[in-house]
Design a protein that fits this description.
The protein is an alpha/beta fold and 351 residues long. It contains nine helices and 16 strands. It folds into two domains: 118 residues, NAD(P)-binding Rossmann-like Domain (Rossmann fold, 3-Layer(aba) Sandwich), CATH 3.40.50; 191 residues, Dihydrodipicolinate Reductase, domain 2, CATH 3.30.360. The chain starts with a strand and ends with a strand.
Amino acid sequence: MIKKGLAVIGYGGMGGGFHCKKALASDVVELLGVFDTDPEKLKKAEGDGIHAYKSLDELLSDERVEIVTVAIPNDFHKDTVIRCLNAGKNVICEKPVALCLADLNEMIAASEKAGKLFTVHQNRRWDTDMLRIKALYEKGELGRISVIESRVHGSRGIPSDWRKTKEHGGGMVYDWGVHLIDQALCVIPDSPVVSVYCNLDYMTTSEVDDGCHITLVFENGVRYFVEIATSNFIALPRFYMTGMFGSAIIESWEQPMKVTVLKKADENDATPIRAESGLTKTMAPRDETTTYSYEVPMPKSDVHDFYRNFCRAVDGKETQTVTHAQMRRVISVIEAAFESARTGEAVKRII
């Protein structure tokens, strides 16, 4: 494949620290340059050996540029994406793709009118923890699944940049929640969400949420719990899944998935145990005679497959990995989560 010309708008953490670095080592795109409204960031890009466009107009006028990646504060996504589409560019937007469904629909309409591809960079679809949970869910080994828990815990609060401001679309729902919600819809793609309940934390700031607790109930009965926290000094497991015949746990990103599966249900194997000040048979642990356990190591995963897919989609050889329907579904769940947090009630809606 001949490499496609790529330009990046925004030379911050994701624009410069991720997209440009990946592009410089890419087998499918050639980084032609960057643009940022901050002159200091343009100087830094040039110091890093990357061409800096003097204006967005100059970038969009470069006929070599086929793909533009937009990596700027959330509130600027819509206008910038539409401007790039109208200039005849295919567009990749950083997450969250938009701050509301109405804005997203305008962006999609612009892409359809221009006849250009438009998608969002949901890079955490390539996280190996989620991929292992998804594979086990699809395998069906644990039987009917009752609960999936997905957590990201930190203790440093929100980064001291635009992510702390409501004006720019800051907060953890938009920062990390969008990832974990997208992952949930990837793990369970074929069953609608019928209920969304959300609580928000304001531990370190009162302007935007610095943590969220979201329960998604799917039509097939699975309760999927999403939690992001930035003031937790002891982290809970990254993933936990349990069903009728077994359970699985992933302690953290770099850890293997541990799975325990029921071999036989034998009521006679439960001998009462002492638990603190009393006896219990109900909570007596099982042993190897009734269960078996194994570990699933981290599989190989290459996040740059996102760009490989997008480039093939531009050529009409594949369908883009992150579709417009999926983008709409994620933003719809986020809107329902904010509505639930505001009203204190679960939002009963088919999503």
